Amino acid sequence: MKIQILGTGCAKCQKLAETAKQAADELKLSYELVKVTNLNDIMGFGVMVTPALAVDGTVKVAGKVPSVDEIKKMLS
Fold first, then answer.
1. How far is CA 64 from CA 30, 31, 33, in A?
2. Active-site positions?
3. Of 10, 30, 47, 63, which sits 20 to 30 A from 40 (CA to CA)?
4. With the CA atoms of 22, 65, 46 and 29 taken in that order, what torsion angle do they form, in degrees rounded to the nearest 10?
5. Alpha-carbon distance 76 to 55, whole Å?
């Protein structure tokens, strides 16, 4: 599973990365966490507000930092 954090590295982007990692670890998933920071790459996902979370190339949420439980549902 590839978990992608789309954002320029702001505090919310870092928080989303931490929360996504925690959720994946609690679910005992085998995953790769990738931070996508290039604006052209981010826009390539169709994302206009960051931070955003994509799983295997599919955007699950944009513009907010969901809770660990919300992310777990997205990863399941």
1. 24, 22, 18
2. 10, 13
3. 30
4. 10
5. 10
pTM above 0.90, yes or no: yes
- The arithmetic mean of pLDDT across residues 53-74, rounded, is 97
∠ at Cα 63 (60, 69), nearest 5°?
Answer: 55
pLDDT per residue over 12-61, tens digit each? 999 999 999 999 999 999 999 999 999 999 999 999 999 999 999 999 99
Enter the tokens of residue 57.
Answer: 């190339």
The bridge status of strand 32-36 relative to strand 2-6 is: parallel
Which domains does the chain show, CATH number per domain?
2-75 (3.40.30.10)
How far apart CA 74 and CA 25 sit, in angstroms, is: 14
